[in-house]
Design brief:
It contains one helix and seven strands; from the N terminus they run H-E-E-E-E-E-E-E. By secondary structure, it is mainly beta. The protein has a single domain (23-150), classed as Protocatechuate 3,4-Dioxygenase, subunit A. Strands 3-2-5-6 form a four-stranded antiparallel β-sheet, with no helix packed on it. A three-stranded mixed β-sheet has the order 4-1-7, with no helix packed on it.
């Protein structure tokens, strides 16, 4: 016969045998204005222009937070060498095995009153497209960091 005590004991014992799971890392939402001046298919490059500013970030999978390797990240900005709509201001890179990426690019300068960069995960792979538009704390900063948490399609 199933009693309350038997039900509680059985359920508790069953829960103890379940594998531990990550708390559930939420996917990064697309940011407003992130897709402005987007150019599909920007080439993978070692750097954009003459460099001098370092854009860095990480890419992880939603849910379990596993770092994602070989994920294409496109980067573009208004810089000392060109406007964010100029083809020469766009480039893409791939993440490393630990999910990190970086791009050396010209110094970002304010556009529309804010020093900011645009980034996109725009690959046709197994993850949803995400556009980011992080704003720099100070226009004199020489680095900016952005993290992506990608949702599988």
């Amino acid at each position: 016969m199933l009693t309350r005590r038997t039900l509680i004991a059985t359920t508790s014992a069953s829960l103890l045998t379940l594998p531990a799971r990550a708390a559930g890392l939420a996917p990064t939402p697309t940011m407003r204005g992130g897709a402005n001046n987007y150019r599909p298919g920007a080439p993978i490059v070692d750097r954009i222009g003459g460099g001098g500013f370092l854009m860095t970030g990480t890419v992880r999978r939603a849910g379990d937070g596993v770092p994602l390797e070989n994920i294409r990240i496109q980067i573009w900005a208004h810089t000392t060498e060109g406007h964010e709509r100029d083809q020469r201001s766009h480039g893409a890179t791939l993440t490393r095995a630990d999910g990190t990426f970086q791009m050396d690019m010209p110094q970002i300068v304010p556009a529309f009153g804010q020093a900011h960069c645009h980034l996109a995960h725009d690959d046709d792979g197994p993850f949803q497209t995400v556009f980011l538009r992080p704003v720099m704390s100070r226009s004199s900063d020489t680095t900016l960091h952005a993290d992506f948490v990608l949702q599988p399609v």
